[in-house]
Amino acid sequence: MTEQNLPYGDLAPDTLVVATGRPPREHDAPVNAPIVLSSTFHETRTPEAGDRIYARGSNPTWDPFEEALGLLEGAGLPALVFGSGLGAAAAALSLVPTGGVVVMPRHGYAGSLSLAADLEAQGRFELHLVDIADTESVLSQLEALAARADAGSLMLWLESPTNPMLEVAEPATLTKAAHAVGALVVADNTFNTPIVHRPLDDGVDVVLHSVTKWLAGHSDVVLGALVTNDPKLRERLLSHRTLHGAIAGPFEVWLALRGLRTLALRMGRSQENAATLAHRLAGHPAVRRVRYPGLPTDPGHERAAAQFNGFGGIISIELDDVATADALVAAVRLWLPATSLGGVESLIERRRRQPAEPATVPEELVRLSVGIENVDDLWADLDRALRGTRAS
Ligand SMILES: *Cc1c(COP(=O)(O)O)cnc(C)c1O
């Protein structure tokens, strides 16, 4: 699809998002990949392995996005795009043999936790929740589980920072220990994106993305992706995608690649805005606690500074009580009261409004997904709304 002679390995991420996933440099060829709307492909001879054949298995519009994301995550293989992040999560969880054990962060993404709990209820595997930031405790629990589980039947699921508690784990240490007991390691990299952190560098086996969020970045598509360096794992994940049919529409993937072109710029601006807002919020009389790994006082700060290229665009704040938190969300005019994250527009949500949110997430916690607007406008709106909660 693209020019193999470009030394992609030497290019920085902010170049890769622009340079990769383009058609070959031929006279009069388009510079952007076209959207291919076709459910089937000409078969003028007996099909061979790797042929497109039918669009549940393969679509030319997926290729440039999969190539770009694979390179961005530092994989030697193209990513696999799915119809949603949870579709990708279901494929990743299918790698656990029946009767196995899945270890997940207790404050992981609520949808992944609900999916894993549902599979546990069906008898597929046992779900074991941990405090992912407590490395010692996760290590001893992994050892205990390995002592009673069959070799190769364990999966460690990483999310760091967690959603919405923003706890920071030590993925390289955890991955090493998990591999030592034969566990497979999946890392949900939705919050960080490869601009901030590349889990494959920690030795993680499979990286998961809700492409819906930062990668596509405009809150206009629902998509997911998996990335791995292991050809056998990729084959199994591809087979799951084809057989279970959690495939992406060509237009959505085309939009995601278009969004990916500005990922580095958007992440940069969101992170800058988030850092400024987190510092201002930390000094606000109406805010009881700010969770943001970029704050030097944050429990995850040292780990995040050591591992990450930035501190992300999500801030969680805790207000005095639920009524105050709801009043804040109701009072903002620029921030959009909506779930989801990672778009160009700033979103605000009291997470426990969602019934699936873990009960250990404080009721009065409000998650801010910081967009790319002018930071002083964002602050003025928040500050006015926060003061209003005090006045009433
Ligand atoms: C949104 C999200 C998902 C699920 O992705 P969808 O595209 O909504 O299916 C998974 N993990 C994290 C961290 C998310 O934020």
Automatic annotation (TrEMBL):
It comes from the Bacteria. Pfam families: Cys_Met_Meta_PP. Coiled coil: none annotated. One of its GO terms (biological process) is transsulfuration. The keyword Zinc-finger does not apply. Gene3D superfamilies: Aspartate Aminotransferase, domain 1, Type I PLP-dependent aspartate aminotransferase-like (Major domain). Its cofactor is pyridoxal 5'-phosphate. It catalyses: L-methionine + H2O = methanethiol + 2-oxobutanoate + NH4(+); L-homocysteine + H2O = 2-oxobutanoate + hydrogen sulfide + NH4(+) + H(+). Its EC number is 4.4.1.2. One of its GO terms (molecular function) is cystathionine gamma-lyase activity. Keywords: Pyridoxal phosphate, Transferase. The modification N6-(pyridoxal phosphate)lysine is found at residue 213. SUPFAM superfamilies: PLP-dependent transferases. One of its GO terms (cellular component) is cytoplasm. Belongs to the trans-sulfuration enzymes family. This is homocysteine desulfhydrase.
